[in-house]
Amino acid sequence: MKPKIVIWLLCIAAVLAWMGMAGAQAAPPAPKVQLPSGEAEWRLEGLWETADENYGEYAQYGSYPNVYQTRQNGSAFSAH
Q1: Is the four-CA dihedral 38, 40, 46, 47 of positive or negative sign?
Q2: Of 17, 28, 44, 45, which residue is the least packed, with the fewest Cβ within 10 Å?
Q3: Side by side, which strands form the sheet with 76-79?
Q4: Phi-psi region of 13 (alpha: psi -120 to 50; beta: other; left: phi over 0)
């Protein structure tokens, strides 16, 4: 009796595992941009949250959160 229960439990676990993998979504393609030179670069535009930390004589002010808007022009970046 026990072997039958173990076999059925293993079958149910295998079916559930298969359903979980079959229903999983694939990762979206990486955001890349094609440069005129043919080189593919990551597209890093958008809002980036940062933790800015003060050093030296301003260390007494500690760190603070900030958000930067980045723009990408080819392989050059600017943040505001």
Answers
A1: negative
A2: 28
A3: 46-53, 63-73, 76-79
A4: alpha
* Cβ atoms of 56 and 72 closer than 8 Å: no
Entry pTM: 0.41
All structural domains of the chain with their residue ranges = 2-79
Number of alpha carbons in the 13 Å side-chain half-sphere of residue 38: 0
Q: What is the pLDDT of residue 27?
A: 66
pLDDT (0 to 100) of residue 40: 79
Q: Are 34 and 40 in contact (CB under 8 A)?
A: yes
Contacts of 58 (CB under 8 A, 6+ apart): none
Q: Which residues of the chain have pLDDT under 70?
A: 1, 25, 27-28, 30, 74-75
CA-based nearest residue to 49, from 74, 66, 35: 66
